């Protein structure tokens, strides 16, 4: 779709989102309906993408390239969050509202490709990892397979359970050569004791897109429990957890989903809810009668069973607005744009003679590209790019890579890619 169509179709609403009037309802006014823009926005249509950029208050004084760490939020999300705080503080209420909860989960379901009932709110990906890791029925010597490129958020819970209960963690080194090689490496580790797989969809170390669907087939063939850390994928690319065939998928609201900080989503397949015990429970985890004298208690039949007690409703209202914003731009449009920027960056880095650590195949690289230089270690290079070129990057120690990771989201541009390349060129000549 061309820019004028976007302006026509979405302009009044996307642009209008910045100037929304007082958002004062617990209903759904914070999610005004406006027509989708279509699925064919040109990734190189700078006029279109600069309109999207205008929706973010993110400073233009430096180039922000660390969405993998933390995403910047659009005005619409920030305003929805603030308005909800104002509304609730004026009456000192929590704002818990079943209809509102459901509406936001419907957006989450569109992002993840699942039913609203399969989504639980969390504070971050790490909380989702902990719910799954500690809720799974595992015994001493049961084996779990993961990769050497995981973020600590998907490592520590498993290691602590290993130490406490004697489960056994086994790792494979992700191959950059082919998707099949990764499937083979996982398969080689499977024994009679293997019970679960816990891998990232997009790795934090190199932005590698692992072949999660094919790994799902492997998991099914061996009757393994299949968990995916989706911290780096939700909000970056179109997703369908049902098609992937995983049993649970955790993500953060505050990275690629550009929502408020301290929000997350956990998908648990409906049929598998009873295979992950809800260990932390309280108000909202239950459903139906509750009786201390008879011992009667029923867990909520949906993934809501993993939520408990008072939470910050404004945070999730802000997340709902952020997800709605992304969905209206269109996840296919977003993915093509950020993927194209990733490809341009990887090509440019290769031309400069930098060592690109991310996979080269278009199906396997994402909008996060990791590279290193021979003459500078990651800390020196990160400091140089920050101090001399005003670039906010992330050093990568994971997997012993000693690289720099560049994340490119919808508030970034091909111009930003050029700025990175200029910085790297200067660094190389130091
Ligand atoms: C793959 C992966 N998993 C988990 C996390 C942890 O995210 P959070 O701090 O939101 O729990 C990160 C953060 O960068 C990550 O990259």
Topology as a string of helices (H) and strands (E): HHHEHHEHEHEHEHEHEEHHEEHEEEH
**Strand count:** 13
Any idea what the radius of gyration is?
Answer: 22 Å
Distance between the amino and carboxyl termini:
44 Å
Total count of helical runs of at least 4 residues: 14
Strand line-up of the largest beta sheet: 2-8-7-6-5-3-4
- CATH architectural type of the largest domain: 3-Layer(aba) Sandwich
In short:
By secondary structure, this protein is α/β, with parallel strands linked by helices. 39% of the residues lie in helices and 13% in strands. It has 2 domains: 99-326, Aspartate Aminotransferase, domain 2; 332-428, Aspartate Aminotransferase, domain 1 (Alpha-Beta Complex), CATH 3.90.1150.10.
